[in-house]
Every structure is written in structure tokens, then in C-alpha cells.
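Let us practice reading a record.
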Amino acid sequence: MYQFKKFAVLVFVLLLAFPLLASCRSKGHTHKNLPYATSGILDLAGWDFKTDGSIRLDGQWEFYWNKLLIPQQFTISKTDMSTVPSPWKSTVVRGDELPDDEGYATYRLLVKMDNIPRNAALNLKFVISSCKLWVDNKMVYASGIVGNSAKNHKGKFTPQVIPIAPEMNQFYITLQISNFGYASGGFITSIELGDMLTIVSQKNTRSFGDMFLFGSIMIMGLYHLTLFLLRRKEFYTLYFSILCFLISIRTLLMGEMLLYNFIPDIPLYIFLKISSSTLSLGLPFFVMFIHSFFPEDTPYWFVRISQIVGVLFTTITLTVNDKLSSLFLMPFQICGVLIIVLILFILSKAAYLKRDASHIFLIATISIVFITINDTLNGYGIIKTGFYIPIGLFLFIFVQSFMLFRKLVKQEELLLRSELRMLQAQIKPHFLFNALNTIISVSRSSSEKTIQLLLYLSDYLRCGFSFKNDEEFVDFDTEILHVKSYLEIEKARFSDKLNIVYEIDNNIECKVPPYILQPLVENAVRHGILPLKNGGTVRLSVKKTDNMLYIVIEDNGVGMTEEKLNSILNGTDKTSGIGLSNVKGRIQRIYKRKIKIESAIGKGTIICITIPII
């Protein structure tokens, strides 16, 4: 528990470290104020692109609403200004906000520099929904078809690094934008100016990070989907795998938007629908994941409401155009906030009731909420600490993956314990019944042999009752006494049909898990020797060499086919009982080793176990 709490604290620190580090980093660069465009002019005098890096062309641009002007047409001396980046719906023209996200406009900015970089370039990421760009009088970029109506307009998204070569130290950047049918039209992301090599290098670094996140989260999703296919009753692995798939897809739609590198001809409306659907579907699946972990604390009506909200908004997103679906965005955001508040309440309740893993679950969820708030405030320009949702989601997914692994391990341990208890309950009644019958039969002819058998039975029961659970180690001598007591009673029962040979080193002092020998010896007797008409021999060999214990259980009984042997080794055989599978499972879990089984029809079976001495 102490180690688990340390892990929880570490996760909390990691998830909250990114905004703090970014804040410190941004403070470290305040030695030089970032230039900001004013009245349509951006003065970059004194800015060195090699030492200071690239610069965003943010600030006040000249703004011509409902006009598509080319550089040669600018003759108007007085014009409006628009803050860039910003959508049209938040743009104020002559004291009035623009009425709609649909329309067309021209932006222009004068850039003044001391020296033009030899390999100057502009980095354009996302403009909704079509645009053209000129540097001075030369058109250097076009995305989609810019038009003054929905009929002659075509939206497209083409992120690109554009090389430019201005002829003078001051030059104009002219940008035409049109939008019809999409929400949030306008100049919504910054244009970056800098050295081509620097911009491309930074872009490649960010792309590598996005690909790493995508691949890592996708692998986690595939792994947990495989777990669900193998263990169909554990639905939390299915919900978690779907969450991983949705988040991994979203990483391709954020940052450098790599989906367009993979599918460059994807229409803009499909891009926007996929982006919205990952959010609307992710919320109900996260609630279902929470419910599968804490069913006692998560009301079923809450799960149903989240499913209805997610399916409803996803259906709207996929069936109507982007502009119409944006009308439902605010109601969905309100519902999403309420659902997250309820999730935090449920996790807080689970933590208060000390549910298993609830504390780290709560810490991880609170942390990702804080990171989301950080990115939202950055998006609105309120703070400048950087965007860390992708990394935050990766760490969040990593934590949840750890929680699932821990839950699966605990379930496996509980299963092995229950099987061991079943094994004890199964052995004691049937063996006790047969042993008593044997002792009664022997008592008619030999009182001394009867006493000896009663002592064997006493040892057998004493050893058996001393085994509490599969986590408890017992002395090797106790385990051997348990096996010998069993075999001596069985030998008295079957007389000459059963021969026993012991090859056990003296002075073996170590601890072993209980019931790792008796079930295997019983299998050798019942399934190997007894089916033979004339019986056979069971050989138990235990050798100690170099701090390792070598155990061999061998019989010359009926043996088994290669097909049956493979099914036993693969764990698919249901006829070998729980004894063999339980021993295999515990050896694998405790020692990370496998038992070896060799068998042939008519020759018998050999089982080998090699474990370190404890």
C-alpha cells in the first residue's frame, strides 16, 4: 500500500508539472518582449531569427470585411482593424460585432525587418475554411477556393510551411479568407514567420511527439482489446481500449494535425466531424469505464444519461453540417461540465469509502481537468503556459493502464486463491472418505498397520489444515510430509498396484508454496497408474543445486497424446482438473517460471519444476 501511495504522488506531480514548467520557461524568455502588430504594422527591428527564434504574426491586421482584394487593389487609406488570431464572430467592426461566421474578408499586414533571413518561411496551420496568401504582389499559398458565396466557394485544409523571398526589408502579407457552411470562420490560428530550417525542425520535433503519443496510446488500446477478447466478462478492458482508440485518433487531429499527412485529400467537413465525434463519444465511454471500476458508487441512471448525451451529439455531428451542429456545441459543453463534476463527486465518494485504487483514480482525473483548464485558458489567450493536453492524456492513459493491470493481477490472485480453496475442499472430503474405508478394512487384519495409517492420515490432515492461502509459504519438510502421507495411504488402498520411489536430498531447508506437489502426485496416481491393469511406479525426485530446487514427478503409466499434452500446456484442457492448472498458475505468478511436462502413450509422464530456494 505504501508503494502504491508513492506511485499516486508521483503521478500527481507529473500530471501537474507541465503547466508549471511551461510557466517557468515562459518567464525565462521575458528578457525580450515579443513584437505585436499595431495598426496593421509589425515592427521586427532588432529581432534575430537565429537567436530569438521564429515569431507569430499576431496583433492588429488591416481588415476588409466582405471584400476580396488583391495586393494591387489597396488604395484605401483608412480601414478597419482586426485582432489576429480570432474568429469572425468575436471581431468588432466599427463598434459592431460581425453577425455571422459565414462570409469573406481580406487581411493585410506590413512587416518591417532589419534583415531578411536567407531562408525565410511562413508556417500556416489552420484557416477555416479557404484562403489565399500573397507576399507583396506574389501569391505563395492557396487552400481551397476563395469565393464570395457558397456557390463559388470550396473549403479545404492544407497545413504547410511556405518559403518566401521578399525583395525588401519591409513587405506586405495579404490574406483572403472565405467561409460558408462551417462554424468558427475567420483567422483563427497564428501565422508563424521565421527561418525555414528552424521552423521545419520544430515542426518535425512536434510531429515526432504526436506520432509517439499516437502509437503509444494505440498500442495500449490494442493490448486491452486483446485482454477483453480473451476475458469477455471484464468490460472495463473494452471501455478502456475504446477510450485509447478515440484519444489516439484525436492526437492526429491536434498539434501538427498529422491526419492530413496520412490522408491529404480528406475533406474539411470530415476532419471536423471526426474531431467533434472523438469528444462526444469519449465522454460516455469514460463514464462507463468509471462505472465498471466503481459500480457501487456510480448510479446506473448517470451512465444512461451520459450515453444519451454522447450518442445524441455524435448523431447530430455526423448528420448535419458543421454550422448547424455548432448550435448544439454549448449545450453539449454544459452537459460535459456537469458530467465531469459528477464524475469527480463519484470518485471523491469512492476515495472516502476507501475503494481500491480510488485515490489515484481521483488524483489522475483532477490533474487532467486542471491541464484541460490550462489549455482552454491558453486558447483564449488569458495565460501563456503552453498546451499540454496530448501529454496529459498520455500520462492519464498510462495511469489508467497501470490501474487495469493492477486490477487484473488482483483478480488473478483471487482466482488462484479460490481455486486453491476449491482444491483443498475437493481433496479432503473424497480422500478422507477413501482413507477411512481403507483404514477400516485394514483394521480387521492388522492393528499395527491401522495405527500407522491413522498417523499418516493425521499428518495429512494437519499439513492440509495448516495451509491458509496461496500466498503463504510453508517449510519444504511440511510439503513433503503432506505428499508422503497421501502416498502411503494410497499405497495401502491399492496394495501392489502402486509402487513409490523417493529420491530426495537430505537437509533441504527452504520455503515452498503449499500444494505444489500433492496435486501433481495425485494426478500421476489417478490418471497415470490406476488405469493400468498391473499398476505402476510413481517416482518423486527432489534435488538441491546452486540455490535452485529441482523437482521431478515421474510415472510409467498410460501417458497422454501430444494433442492433449499441448492443450494442458496451453491451458485449454478442461479434463485435467483445477489441481494442475492451479500449480501452473502459482508457479508462474510467484517465480515467473513454467513447469515442463513430457509424456508419451504407454510410456508415462514426467513433470519438472525448477524454482529458486527461498
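A brief commentary: The domain at 41-190 is CATH 2.60.120.260 (Jelly Rolls).
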